[in-house]
């Protein structure tokens, strides 16, 4: 809680979230509990935006590195189903995180909600969780293939593949933490 | 809610959970909301036990099928790192789900809590989530290898591998849903 004061930039307008009025204060009640809850919710909102922004960056890198990984002969990514899978999931993850970042930035700047809060919490949580599973699945499927290729030859093709896999794993880590935050938000929605 | 009445076996003693007294009623308040909350929590407790039991069954099957997958020559699972990974995660998942099922059955039968409620909710959620990620990762890594082997030869070795992979995926599905339930429980803990 205390590091919030150091980070709070003055241009972000902290609003009372619409859920706070009907949601229960789980602290020891009173004004202090409600204030702590608002601070936590504001921190979580900005934290999830930052995490999704980083995930967007990493998935973009992963899919661009993999898509440009064509060096002739056997060193073309599209000869290997694992790499095609990694590319597909990289694109999907970029689209999803891009859409989420766009929506969150717009909500922060205009103050209007594009989706109903309950619907948004569901989309957030299931989206994060499913994309996280897909990312870890595609990265894991591409690792053994790359290992085996690198035993034979260590060149720009295998290095680029390894880079794309690492980027996917970083994007997975960000989305896994983001799914935690979204899961907490979903559970504290009233009338779930 | 209505299917609870059909399933409720008389021997399971429904207790008021210790969290319910201090946790907020998220319904429209009053006795009805609290009763609905108790019913939901009881349903969730039994649902998570059932899901972990099924996950235990599937991970046991997966690791037994894979461990007995030795048919001489190149048809030995331990020549392939993907299959060794699948086996290791199968064993880990069996141990984890076995321990959880043991704990939950003991809590249901004796009524005593082995862990503090908050600690138990954390262990449940992070355990389920991490094992689910590991299971999907190991299954995904083993799929392309098996695909490639089956293009050359379709025999008892590749069939057993495919069976073990499927069992891992089923165990993953159960644990993913169980992680959802544990996440909800964790979020409704007071003083989180």
TrEMBL record, chains A, B:
InterPro entries: CASP_dom (IPR006702). The chain crosses the membrane at residues 49-68, 83-102, 123-143, 163-184. Residues 1-10 have a biased composition (Polar residues). It is a multi-pass membrane protein. Residues 1-25 are annotated as: Disordered. It comes from the Eukaryota. Residues 44-174 form the Casparian strip membrane protein domain. The keyword Cytoplasm does not apply. It holds the Pfam family CASP_dom. It is found in: Cell membrane. Keywords: Cell membrane, Membrane, Transmembrane, Transmembrane helix. Homodimer and heterodimers. Belongs to the Casparian strip membrane proteins (CASP) family. This is CASP-like protein. The lineage of its organism: Eukaryota, Viridiplantae, Streptophyta, Embryophyta, Tracheophyta.
